[in-house]
Specification:
Shape: globular
Oligomer: single chain
Distance between the termini: 55 Å
Order of helices and strands: HEHHEEEHEHEHEHHEEEEHHEEHEE
Number of helices: 11
Length: about 425
């Protein structure tokens, strides 16, 4: 993974206006970014758990949070801003991907300085807090939100859609009120379907997509106990992924690094820019569209990266993969629309297949039950040439076989 130092981040985002919108995960993305803008150290646990505080790492609370009262309702608001001489980063807390509140945000962005980078995601609240037809409404709201982003934002603005990260088998996050606790065990499957819709529509609107669900599907040991949030190590990796994507989109060459012991040494001079976005804007409507990125070299692993991406039919009758989307589950899993039978098979498959092993706190090996007493062995033989069988119950520490162990035969000489 390409890593960035604090100095490189300040240079990359020099005179840039960054807007981050989303839930508590995106709030941690915002916090880690402004932390990295000032120092190379990670966030603390207390900093990641806090919400709505008046000040954090030289930023300020503009709206909501402690100013409006902390609660878990769908009308919760929190607007934060980090402003220095050459950097401006703003965060908007969203409980729904499209709403009148999003319209007010876009109107405010149109009247003020135009953002250079917008990073957003909204899924967990959308599919859990708005009734039984939340998924259907989510698809409609995604299309409306992306249409409004296309119309309101400047063509030079780089828009990145973050896909929702994997949830735990039991969710206890603060957004899940007691009346909706029955959704805690099925929500992890709903966000996979929501990720599919979000990534597909974002790709069709020519927005960039960063598949966080794919990147951290095997890193579940760094997820905290509530099944939703992640620790500071993962969030620093998320920041590096996003910055690498931004640098690639803006044509910034990051110096290669090699690790020697605990030292990170540069192999090339500091980062350089291939082009300036202002120069391209005079020749076309949008430099983030494929036809206007003539100077942007594709990623060396471009074709391998999109081998399993979605296929879209073209006018010639052929199917081609569109950029910006990567599959996030293995092909052997059930389809996204799970009926009762498929859902039961999905859960059963996850319990018994060792390839689906997860390294989170919920999969600690079970404590063995009370062992059955062995029968007395009797007198020892007069010599060591006689072998006799003796039965015992083996302790089974597998997380997928929680019953008593099978009977085995063991020979004693």
């Amino acid at each position: 993974m390409l890593t960035f130092t604090s100095e490189e981040v300040r240079q990359l985002l020099h005179n840039k206006f960054v807007v981050i919108m989303g839930d508590s995960i995106q709030r941690s993305v915002y916090k880690d970014l402004i932390r990295l803008l000032q120092t190379d150290s990670l966030l603390t646990s207390a900093q990641m758990k806090a919400k709505g505080e008046l000040h954090f790492e030289n930023d300020c609370l503009l709206e909501g949070g402690l100013l409006g009262g902390l609660h878990n309702g769908t009308n919760y608001r929190e607007v934060r801003q980090f402003h220095q001489r050459h950097h401006l980063v703003r965060f908007y807390f969203l409980t729904r991907v499209y709403s009148p509140y999003l319209e007010s945000i876009l109107d405010h962005l149109q009247t003020g300085p135009q953002p250079d980078l917008v990073i957003l995601n909204s899924c967990v609240w959308d599919v859990s807090r708005y009734g039984p037809s939340s998924m259907k409404k989510y698809r409609t709201n995604l299309e409306m939100a992306f249409n409004r982003l296309d119309a309101a934002l400047s063509p030079s603005c780089l828009v990145i859609w973050n896909m929702t990260m994997p949830l735990g088998p039991k969710v206890t996050g603060g957004f899940l009120i007691p009346e909706l606790q029955h959704l805690s065990q099925t929500l992890r499957n709903d966000i996979i379907e929501g990720n599919f819709y979000g990534a597909t529509l974002a790709g069709l609107h020519l927005f960039d997509v960063v598949d966080l669900h794919y990147h951290f599907r095997f890193d579940l040991g760094n997820r905290v106990k509530d099944g939703v949030h992640w620790n500071n190590v993962v969030h620093r990796r998320i920041t590096h992924l996003l910055l690498a994507h931004v640098a690639d989109a803006w044509g910034v060459i990051i110096p290669e690094k090699k690790i020697r012991g605990d030292l990170m040494q540069d192999r090339k001079p500091p980062m350089t820019f291939n082009f300036q976005p202002g120069q391209l804007l005079s020749h076309g409507p949008s430099w983030r569209f494929p036809e206007d990125r003539n100077t942007h070299q594709p990623h060396p692993d471009f074709f391998a990266f999109h081998d399993d991406s979605l296929l879209v039919p073209t006018g010639d009758g052929l199917n081609e993969s569109f950029s910006g989307f990567t599959s996030f589950e293995e092909s052997g899993l059930p389809p996204f629309h799970l009926d009762a039978v498929a859902l039961d098979r999905f859960c059963h498959f996850e319990r018994v297949d060792p390839s689906f092993f997860r390294y989170d706190a919920e999969n600690v090996p079970p404590r063995p039950g009370r062992r059955r007493k062995r029968a007395p062995r009797g007198p020892e033989p007069r010599h060591n040439l006689v072998m006799r069988p003796q039965s015992f119950y083996a302790q089974d520490y597998s997380p997928y076989k929680r019953g008593r162990g099978a009977t085995y035969e063991r020979y004693w000489s």
